[in-house]
Design goal:
The complex is a heterodimer. By secondary structure, chain A is mainly α. Classes of the chains: A mainly alpha, B alpha+beta.
């Protein structure tokens, strides 16, 4: 019994489908052949992972979608149709939360996205003690987020005695109300968030930079390229694929920012740092009497749909420039 | 090769089955605290284990020892009951999460204002039979508080416990002295509070005043301020419905007073202070005055390292225009899914831990003795859970053990029974408190904040919250 594989090649942009056919006799797909060919083994090996993934990832998603059309205090439940969505969309605080989230995302993009890139490129150029710099860059990621925020909260203490205000005092500036001034509080949160998260992205960029062939730099040098020229014409093109991914990951992460506003300000002052995720939390747990779980899940579903659409749109728009 | 593959397959299968079993156990209804059927002697209660709200998070070892000593005494009295204390601090957000996740202890504490709604939502156990069996004094509770512990059917679903208090003004006597003020003559009007706050800040560099503004606590303390000026956040209509009243002149006056402190630069600009945060900040000397329940000295000793010699002082909240001190209190309740045996043990524990010391001389002395040995505060002034007469009598039982600086609390104790106590809003209390916190924050951080606009918007939202609360209980069916 001889078999051969036939590869059907579709036009560009369509999937390549591999089909199996027989030249002499057609193989019959029975349960026995499925077991003999390792189907059962594969299934049993996959079962724990499938179970864990299904139970802990997909079941909560399904439950959340169901809860978004229910009115419930988790003891007594009734169907609510789309009223939860209507309540959320009519909430005067929702536009504030969306605006704040977009503001955080923009600030994080403007300041947070280039910082790890620049740090990684510079660190890649360093010839000595590269490991030390990597450790220093990654150290903030190792610190638990709550501890990091408490530490920075201490730095941001209002009044002349605060750490940052003390430093500003040496140059006759401040004191600044870092977390109390509506104009300053969001950049203050982004500063801490960038410090806390940049290390992880730096490591990704450094890993990607190791794949750049050294010969290209040598060739560029022979051609008389400056340091900037080497970065622009050699390094950046090789980082393009990684940059596309980290860019959308950053947008997804900042759209779901919670730790910083929750721990630093609780959404204040006067909702200046209330984000969409914090609003979801407030719906569910903001008051002590059962919470608006329906509204919380409705807003979660809406956020998930928006982010999913954004991701699809992003990958469609950038497909042409992507290396993968 | 084949055998190793079989072993690997078997292990993978066993892992899958194990995970399934683990998750089933988590989601199951079997409770390790359920008494074993048939155990013990015939007719005697079977062993039962309950978890109970214990010390505050971060409590000192002395405080933990005090509770453990009382647990031992309780277990000696009821050998079939095992009590496991858990750290517990009621906050709106953590309580809701614990309620939703089913992780509350068997016996937990709730604010009196939440009692009615939690009962209406079937979220508390019916403990009427146990209360009437184990608390022969169940008719003696202070009527101002016990109504919140009963359902519409007149049954007990909770019990007044732990405390019943009025809000008061807490002062740092050391800072008063450093600023040249006499701590024995604390401020008695809001204008004096503002003046003293400014003097303290100008002379010492420490904030003169602190205000909770995080979560629901901002609205709670604004309610304190408004009540002291004769106002209220909501009014009851003749037909029993409620109307949001945030545009009350007393509420506006309270916000303008806070804005004045911000203008003076004498109020702590930290907007993240909640109940525990304010206690911690005050105990750390971050500001000199703040309002909170009259009994928070206990918490500051238990969790913030405050001592009798710290310089703590307590005085009454200033009142004007017929206002009073906003009251509050705590109910002890039992998990809705508790078994009868657990409910019985839980009510016995509530009686022993919270109430017996208020009614029984020997229990009062025993409790105070253990507390003093563990360097815990005894004698902090609170309002009576039962009658004023019984409260004053109970103080004589523990006279020898009182170790709180009562001389520094005269500003409060001199008027605590003559100052009117105002009840908290009845409908949608926590949602209204929560939506008022941003208003407080706006006034304290934005000198151009328009108080009328802020209160007008908040009033609209408060009325919506009241309307929602009135029809809150979802109907069964899904």
């Amino acid at each position: 019994m001889v078999t051969r594989d036939v590869v059907a090649v579709r036009p560009p942009g369509r999937r390549t489908v591999r089909v199996s056919a027989t030249t002499t006799t057609r193989r019959r797909h029975t349960p026995v052949t499925w077991v003999r060919r390792g189907g059962l083994s594969a299934l049993v090996f996959a079962l724990p992972a499938l179970f864990v993934f299904g139970w802990f990832s997909w079941l909560p998603i399904v439950k959340a979608v169901v809860m978004s059309v229910q009115k419930t205090n988790l003891i007594v439940t009734s169907w609510a149709g789309l009223s939860n969505f209507q309540h959320v969309l009519a909430d005067p605080v929702l536009p504030i939360a969306i605006r704040n989230t977009l503001w955080f995302a923009l600030l994080a993009l403007v300041f947070g996205f280039p910082v790890p890139l620049v740090a990684a490129v510079l660190m890649n150029e360093v010839r000595r003690m590269k490991g030390l710099y990597s450790v220093l860059a990654y150290l903030p990621v190792v610190i638990p987020p709550v501890v990091a925020v408490l530490l920075w909260k201490f730095f941001y203490t209002p009044g002349p005695a605060g750490v940052f205000n003390k430093l500003l005092g040496y140059v006759h500036l401040g004191p600044v109300l870092w977390l109390q001034d509506r104009a300053i509080v969001m950049p203050a949160l982004v500063l801490e968030a960038t410090w806390a998260a940049a290390g992880g992205t730096v490591i990704i960029y450094l890993a990607a930079l190791t794949s750049v062939p050294a010969e290209l730099y040598d060739a560029a040098e022979v051609d008389g390229a400056s340091v900037w020229g080497k970065i622009w014409h050699v390094t950046m093109p090789h980082l393009r694929g990684v940059l596309f991914v980290t860019f959308i990951l950053q947008i997804l992460a900042t759209a779901q920012v919670f730790n910083e506003p929750y721990l630093f300000t609780g959404g204040g002052p006067n909702n200046a740092t209330l984000t969409v995720l914090l609003l979801i939390y407030q719906y569910a747990f903001g008051t002590s009497l059962g919470g608006k779980y329906g509204e919380a899940t409705a807003l979660s579903v809406m956020l998930a749909v928006v982010l999913a659409l954004l991701s699809v749109l992003y990958f469609r728009l950038t497909r042409r420039w992507s290396t993968s | 090769m084949r055998s190793s593959r079989t072993i690997a397959l078997g292990m993978a299968g066993a892992l899958a089955v194990g995970l399934l079993a683990a998750c089933s156990a988590t989601g199951g209804t079997t409770s390790p605290t359920t008494p074993a059927a048939g155990s013990g002697t015939p007719g005697a209660p079977g062993p039962v284990t309950i978890t109970v709200a214990g010390t505050l998070p971060g409590a000192s070892q002395d405080n933990v020892d005090q509770l453990n000593a009382r647990v031992k005494e309780f277990e000696a009295k009821y050998p079939y009951i095992t009590v496991k204390p858990e750290e517990y601090l009621w906050t709106a957000t953590t309580f809701t999460a614990q309620l939703a996740g089913g992780t509350l202890p068997t016996v937990f504490e709730i604010p009196v204002t939440d009692g009615k709604t939690l009962i209406q939502n079937n979220q508390l156990a019916d403990i009427d039979a146990q209360v009437k069996a184990d608390m022969p004094y169940y008719n003696d509770f202070n009527p101002a508080i016990v109504g919140n512990a009963k359902g519409a059917d007149g049954k007990f679903y909770a019990v007044p416990a732990k405390n019943f208090y009025a809000n008061a003004l807490h002062i740092n006597r050391t800072l008063f002295t450093q600023a040249g003020l006499d701590p024995n003559k604390p401020p008695t009007t809001w204008d004096e509070v503002r003046q003293d706050a400014k003097i303290i800040h100008d002379k010492t560099g420490v904030w003169g005043y602190g205000q909770m503004a995080n979560g629901a606590t901002g609205g709670w303390q604004l309610a304190v301020d408004a009540a002291s000026r004769g106002g209220s956040l909501e009014t009851r209509n003749a037909d029993g419905t409620y109307k949001a009243n945030l545009t009350d002149p007393a509420v506006k006056a309270s916000l303008e007073w806070l804005a004045g402190l911000a203008q003076d630069n004498s109020i702590d600009p930290d907007m993240s202070l909640d109940w525990a945060g304010a206690n911690q900040a005050f105990a750390a000397g971050q500001f000199a005055m703040f309002t909170s329940g009259s009994d928070v000295y206990n918490a500051m000793v238990q969790t913030n390292g405050m001592t009798k010699d710290w310089g703590y002082g307590l005085t009454a909240v200033p009142t004007e225009n017929g206002g009073g001190a906003l009251g509050g209190g705590t109910l002890a309740a039992v998990k809705a899914n508790a078994t009868d045996a657990e409910k019985d043990a839980a009510v016995k524990w509530i009686d022993f831990w919270y109430l017996s010391k208020l009614r029984d001389q020997s229990q009062a002395a025993a409790d105070a003795k253990v507390a003093v040995a563990a360097k815990q505060p005894v004698g902090t002034p609170v309002l009576p859970i039962f009658s004023k007469q019984l409260y004053q009598e109970s103080l004589t039982w523990i006279q020898d053990y009182i170790n709180v600086p009562l001389d520094n609390m005269k500003g409060y104790t001199d008027v605590m029974f003559s100052q009117p106590v105002v009840g908290e809003p009845s409908m949608a209390t926590q949602p209204i408190y929560t939506l008022l916190s941003p208003v407080v924050q706006a006034v304290l951080t934005d000198k151009h904040a328009n108080v009328d606009t802020l209160l007008g918007d908040a009033n609209t939202q408060a009325q919506q919250a009241i309307n929602q609360a009135a029809t809150a209980s979802p109907t069964p069916g899904a």
